[in-house]
């Protein structure tokens, strides 16, 4: 009996990968791969195409040998028990590689190669010999010619397949043949960022005039002292003022409105009944934020008669309808789904709503929800006819004051929520960053409001340009050559994982997230044992050099990988979000869909693999760490062309320091069992390239990811485009950073071919940036009542039933 390891990925489908578990499988000698090696001798220049094999076989096959000097590949594939094909491919020994000798370290394998070469030599000898005028040989020659012709045709047919993988054309790895570029960025060590105090010096929840049960519930989850924003906001909201609240990320803005809302509702006498309907609506930009906010309400609400519910895109509409029919007092919702129900669910009445909260208000606007919000406000106010987009536009052109008003004016004297008969609507807007858009939204949703800012000197010093980041976060930037991005990111994951608990890795597009998730979970988190011995000359070559190598793998990263983006279905998103929050150690690859408001208290590291589309996005991404006074670190990847980003951030009083990549890169030496850093980096890059080249699906993902990146890079805000300038980009280098060996044009053609085959009309959708993805779900048919439903990943995701046209005469 022989044993070998079978690995599988337990939750890849849901975007959650436990670092793969290993299972010993006992096999009989007959089925052991060693015993069933089969040589094939296809002399085919297209040997690099992936071989497909039936899933059930546990055979190893060394196939597709080519005598082509410049491009030899021996590849064997073993199908794992779970059906995941593992390639035990190699070898890439190129005369021009300049990466060392071309010897195979494995004796067995070199013997095999030699045997095969001899076979080919014989074969070619036969061809030469056939030059003699001998009828039998002539006949042989004809047969050979026919065979060659057939091979050629087969090769041609394969080549026309839309996925043509050119991996084995292994020209020398030019990873380090790069023109030296200067790092001219000058950081300002004396630059002083604007610092906000997180916690109040003195005030405790028990000092507030709120129900003692709320205080005790807060104490149970460890909250006794108020944060600065809570200290300033809660009394103002309790008094019934409209408020525009700005305070840094992670400063506790959610409780700043949750506490007064709950306190007001519990104080209503007689007690609220379910039939009293919705009293307060909280609008948030993302589904995850809706769930998170709901959860927080659940933690502090011990008043069993007060019902808190949520509505968000992707959920079952009928379940939500039933929830609304039964009666909800506090409703947390994403704007699209909320408006859908307002317009189409009869049981949902909004006439009792006396409090409206817009959390992450600027993001709501960024996502194009302005019109939806306006419509929601009108529905609440029972004023459906007055909507005049032109008037709103004109009004919104008022210039945003660089010094926001600090006047405390109010038309109400008590929190209208306390009085069920009140006809007043109290509105609260919150954000960590202020934009012109927020001022416009405030103008539209509130007649007058109190401006609350936790920055003490705001009246004197505040300028719209100043960005505030918790001072407990160490902000760094990493400068890499474009071609080095992939292995540098891998190195940073390897090294930071040792000290960090939870990492967010922000990427530009969903396709990038999908691709890197697949690559890292399958080809970084686990690697073959004894890989240091698998060398072809100087070059470390993984997979299949030794027959046992595919059987024994080891965990390289003892951490769980997750992915989250807007193109995932709601169930998977929910599961990933929950999983990442609960896990002890994890790496979340994500788009900006989780950049806002998401609270993972133990997150201590942020990596921005792509620059932010807007300056504010930088603040919010970094803000996923350093929450409520905790410490954290943040890294942004910049290329030499992008280094002016650092100076740009300094204009906003945000100061970054350069991170030396070398200590991180040395991790590669350990992992790749390679003494020299460059060789280790090349080995990892090759490992990735081979993995991508030999796996059709992964190759396709890499191509789509690259193409989506190129679109993403064209969508920076006008200000940031000075730094992230597409015209300065070397596309070929970026292709390398996706582990591809084709040219940019070839990649584009591959993707175009794929898309045209699949869903021609969805070409743009697939290549979309995450911003586009937000527009993803559906375009509901226009209804008279609806002005314009923003379709978004955060919108309802509902499909309206088309009303059947009445037949004339019925
Ligand atoms: N009084 C408090 N004492 C201790 N921790 C608190 C307190 N209030 C809130 N927190 C915690 O602070 C963290 C951040 O809170 P919250 O998510 O409300 O921040 P935020 O200001 O809304 O951030 P963002 O701008 O990123 O949305 C949460 O983990 C929350 O539980």
Automatic annotation (TrEMBL):
Residues 234-452 form the Helicase ATP-binding domain. Its EC number is 3.6.4.13. Residues 88-108, 756-810 are annotated as: Disordered. It comes from Callosobruchus maculatus. The Q motif is unique to and characteristic of the DEAD box family of RNA helicases and controls ATP binding and hydrolysis. Residues 203-231 form the DEAD-box RNA helicase Q domain. Residues 756-777 have a biased composition (Basic and acidic residues). A motif (Q motif) lies at residues 203-231. Belongs to the DEAD box helicase family. GO terms for molecular function: ATP binding; hydrolase activity; RNA binding; RNA helicase activity. This is ATP-dependent RNA helicase. GO terms for biological process: regulation of gene expression. The lineage of its organism: Eukaryota, Metazoa, Ecdysozoa, Arthropoda, Hexapoda. RNA helicase. Residues 787-798 have a biased composition (Polar residues). It catalyses: ATP + H2O = ADP + phosphate + H(+). InterPro entries: DEAD/DEAH_box_helicase_dom, Helicase_ATP-bd, Helicase_C-like, P-loop_NTPase, RNA-helicase_DEAD-box_CS, RNA_helicase_DEAD_Q_motif, SPB4-like_CTE. It comes from the Eukaryota. Keywords: ATP-binding, Helicase, Hydrolase, Nucleotide-binding, RNA-binding. It is an enzyme of class 3 (hydrolase). Residues 488-669 form the Helicase C-terminal domain.
